[in-house]
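Hey L., structure's done. Input below.
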Amino acid sequence: MYYSIPPYADTTHPVKGWGIGVAESRDLTRWKKVAEVTPEAAYEKKRSLCTGSHSN
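Output:
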């Protein structure tokens, strides 16, 4: 599953802007984060959301 990760509240955090999380589940009840795609380009830092996903 892909999901949106909102910007970090800590302004000193090196990752700026929205990110995309990737999670997997074998039973669709328990989910485990397996990857995170961080914004790299300036336009991605403004808004890089997964369409139809839920924010954490």
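The beta strands are 2-5, 19-24, 32-37. The two ends are 13 Å apart (CA to CA).

-- N.
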